[in-house]
Amino acid sequence: MTRRYHPVLVVLHWLLALMILGGLLVGGLVLAETPNDDPAKLTSLLLHMVSGLTILALMIGRLGLRLFTAKPPHADIGNGLLNTGASAAHWALYLLVIGMSVSGIVMSNTAGLPDIVFGGSGTPLPENFDDLAARTVHGIISTLLWLLIAGHVLAALYHHFVRKDGLLRRMWFGDRNA
Question: For the chain, what is the domain count?
Fold first, then answer.
């Protein structure tokens, strides 16, 4: 029986965790606080957009690999509702991350950012993005992602320190059958 995830899934899990947290922090702390007429905003937007597209590609690749590789059985905490909730939370992470990327693409295209950021059109950024529906969606998904990530981390810590069931080993390197 497989007790650990495929090593590529492990790498993607931790790489995506860092990239997603970085994207959320840059979006919420740097981009949101930098005025659109600040020339440094273009560099920040460029990095944010490229990392968002990279996250989308890696997340889709991770999802595909997860669907087609052997994986450990679902963790069983002894409560059907909590087990179902944990499974739903994992799928929600995929959905929210992909939705975050898609809403970013829609917002970017609606605001004409590809030409401004990548094309050097000389066109200034819009005064703000607040009137864009995709911006609202992007913000809502950001909040939901923060909450889900916090729950994910707390659940992992609970398994590790309270239950001491070795659940974290599943998402680390080593013999997949040990």
Answer: 1
